[in-house]
Amino acid sequence: MNNIELEAYLNEILNADAIPDESLNGLQVEGKSEIRKVAFAVSACEEAFSKAASADADALIVHHGLFWKNKGAERIRGLLLGRLKPLILNGLNLYAYHLPLDAHPSLGNNAKAARELGLGNVEPFCDYHGTLIGVSGAFPAPVPVGEAVAMLERFYGHEATALLFGRKIVSTVGIVSGGAPNEVKQAAEKGLDLYVTGEASEPVYYVVNELGMNMASLGHYATERIGVMALMDHAKDVLGLDTFFVELNNPL
Predict the structure, then answer these.
(1) Cα→Cα distances 121→208, 237, 246, Å
(2) Are residues 120 and 213 in the same domain?
C-alpha cells in the first residue's frame, strides 16, 4: 500500500479531520512510499522506532506522536535527533492518531474496552473541546465496587489506583482513557457510579472525595493499548497488511 494512500484511509476511518486535537494527526514523518509491514505502539519513542526498524517494518502507527500543535519548532539535535535517526535511516513512516483513536465508536480505546468488559447501553460520554471522547455504559447486573475494580485490573493488566468514595454497589461506568482525571466531574454530573481513566493526580483525590465518587486509574499506557491494537487488527484484516505490536512495558 502507498504511504499517502494509507494516511488518507486512516484519516477517513478515524474521522481525523473533524476532531480538534493538539496532535498533528496523520503522517508525521514520511518514509518509503511502499508499505507492506506495519508496527503499532502506544507512543513515539526511540525504543519503538528501533524495534520497528529491526523487524523490517515500513511504517509505525502510534497513539502519541512526536509533533503537536502550538509547541513550537524544535532543533533536530539531542533527544529529538536520537529519536529520529532510526526513522530516517530506515525509511520508516510515522503516523499518529490521538483523540480520533480515543473517540472512535468501534476502534477507540474507550468503546472497545466497554464492549470487552461486557457493558451495555454504551453511548458517547465526556466532552473535550467539543468532542465526546469517552463512553459510558452499565454492567449487566450491579456489582460491589471492589469487584468492579478487580475486573478492570484483570482487563487492563495493571494495578488500579482506586479512590472509592461513592456507592458500594455500582452499575454505571464512564471510561476515558489516558490522562483525564479531572473529567471525573463530568462522570459525577451524569450520575455515574464509577469513573475509569488512565492517570490519577494529587489534586483529584480531594475532588473525588468531595464529589462522593468512585474513580479507578489503570495507567495511561495500559488504557491506551486497547485502541492501537484494535487498529492493528483492522489494518491486518481489512487492508491485508503484515502487522505487529511493539510492547514498551511502560508502568505509568
Answers:
(1) 25, 27, 33
(2) yes
- Strand ranges for 30-81 from DSSP E: 37-43, 59-64
* Calpha distance 211→246 (Å, rounded): 39
| pTM, to two decimals | 0.94
24-61: b or e for each residue (b if 16 or more CB lie within 10 Å)? ebbbbbebeeebeebbbbbbbbebbbbbbbeeebbbbb
With both helix axes pointing from N to C terminus, report the angle between 109-116 and 145-156 in degrees, rounded to the nearest 10: 120
d(CA 30, CA 16): 18
| Amino acid symbol at 180 | A
Which cell is 161 given? 489506583
16 near 26, Cβ under 8 Å?
A: yes
- CATH number for the domain spanning 38: value is 3.40.1390.30
Q: In the chain, pLDDT over 90 holds for what percent of residues?
A: 93
pLDDT in tens, 99-142: 999 999 999 999 999 999 999 999 999 999 899 999 999 999 99
